[in-house]
User: Fold these one by one.
Assistant:
Number 1:
Amino acid sequence: MTTRKHLKQLVRERMRKTGERYTVARRHIAESDSSWEFRGGLDGDTAALTNVLANLGVVAPHTGEPLTEAMVLGVGGGLGAGYILWEFDSHPLRSRVLTLGFRRLWQYPDRWARGTAERLGLHADQHETGGGKRAAAELDAQLERGLPAIAWIDPYTLGHRGEPEWLDGYGGPPVVVTERVGDAYAIDDRSSSRILVPADRLAAARARVGSYRNRLITIDPERIDLDLRPAVEEGLRLQVEHLSEPSDSFSLPAWRKWARMTGDTRNPKGWPNVFADGLGVGSLRASIYSDAAHGAHLRGLYADFLDEAAELLGRDLGADAWRTAAEAWTPIVDAALPPGDPLRSLIDDGLDRAAARWELQRARDLAPDVPPPLGEQVMAMHEAEVAALERLRAAL
């Protein structure tokens, strides 16, 4: 089985022997070895880009190893902070939807992808079209060239995560389409093995969400011009700039706002008012846990980036401060769903027990409950992140 680490070398050897262009030679290599290295990942957007680059054989010049997800996160401008509590009157039992954001530009994935690709010198091609036939043709054309494609989808419509109908159209992070297999496509959704989805279902999922309908990003390894040092320096600058902004929806003040809202009885958006009837608390608890547990808040991953950047740039960038900030999230996720809670276990089991997870979550939404008292824990986390930002600012 071909390892992705040596894929580029094999392709170039074939080019020398046959005179073929890179994409043609790579397609022949892929046809003789249809393996895809599944690498998982914490964040959908950063993992998709990281895994595509690794499988294309792209390596960091200073290590000779594939770029890590931590490095892609850092070059992308690092962390963000987002707190939005949505209310939809037309759907009573799903009217309270908590959204937490952890990556810079989490609310604008297209901007993040374009900027990160530009800083990495990837010369990525973004394809968008309103027509389903053209969208399918563009995807097939890229796969025929031997290139994987990052595709944005609606997870409920695609159906591979077992999500309930009330999440229809909510959208989510992208998947990587690795190859066409007859009337189906193979995808990598931070998974441990390939997932096959019918072609018509993938087409419907790609077209479902208007803000990124039929969007694809592909990367031609022949056009990559990677210069990591300036990319890292720019990513660090963007990080300090972004987390210093005053926005209480998309930057660090969002955590202070969250802490306040958990006990604010005067503000209509305060939890005592929003959850006055006790309904929907199961989803509130589950969303906090599923969004932030197991390092999904990305603070530990960003510390890993700072370690890599420190080695590249030759100076300490305060990674330990962000690891302290990451530890401050543990009391939050434990208060949302304590260890031993059946819903927590079902979430941790992932796709294997998705149906049971959503059934229990809905049952809890219908049973009156009180939101977890998180004000002190969230405020402590906010203070730790402010301190980590100041440490990074001083280092730069």
Number 2:
Amino acid sequence: MTQRVALVTGALGGLGTAIAQQLALAGHKVVAAYHPEFDKPDEWVKEQAEAGFKDFILVAGDVSDLESSAKMVAEAEAKAGPIDILVNNAGITRDRMFAKLEKDGWDAVIATNLTSLFNVTKQVSTKMAERGWGRIVNIASVNGVKGQAGQTNYSAAKAGVIGFSKALAAELATKGVTVNVIAPGYVATKMVTAIREDILKTIVDSVPMKRLAKPEEIGFAVAFLASELSGFTTGATLNINGGLYYQ
């Protein structure tokens, strides 16, 4: 198998970590991108080494900012080589009912969850097309497909991720570059499992499978979409939500 270089944004979070690990297990060289103000890279590297993952390459950047994203990708390429696989995973929430949602809460979520796709993908997609091979996997959400009260900003951003991906997939379809989306449901990350027990039970009860997704189940799906054998899959949205929503 040809070893590819994969860049994962938001890699130090629960889902990002699982994605990075599954790509590493698939044999790829993985660059883990993180936010310099909010993440703790030294702690993360130690945890990964203890788990047997000792070869991650780290780069810092703010994906909501175009200039910072360009510098981040340039650093990744300098350390690891041309980016063959891009996973746009970085995301935040600022949940409020719309009547109480302030403009800064809207702007922050749109910038980090949607505008970031422009900022980061812009740095690599043309180069992928020129080389004739590339995989772009964008992480959306079940709430970008079905909507969710209290998440007009998040739902709008994640729906935008799907539209962006379908359009870019059409543009790159003859260039050897695929663009796909994974829309996870509720995933058992540390953040989710720390939710108050009664609220978490309500969430789990809403899922037909009566459980949360394992982070590695999402990571494995990313690894498939990043593989050689996924080459005829593009413009697709893979809903991994335990039957919570079908479309």
